[in-house]
Amino acid sequence: MANPPPMIELCHLRYFIAASEYGGFRKAGASVFNRHNCAVCLTLAT
Length: 46
What we know:
Elements: H1 10-22, H2 25-28, E1 33-35, E2 40-42
Antiparallel strand pairs: 1-2
């Protein structure tokens, strides 16, 4: 059986909306992602 896709929480959508309104995550004023060589994960801010 295939694993179901991860669920997106409402708070995650709020960060994406804020980033789109401000033109980027840096301009939105919060570090939302930890970037790695091959992956990206959410920070505790979410």
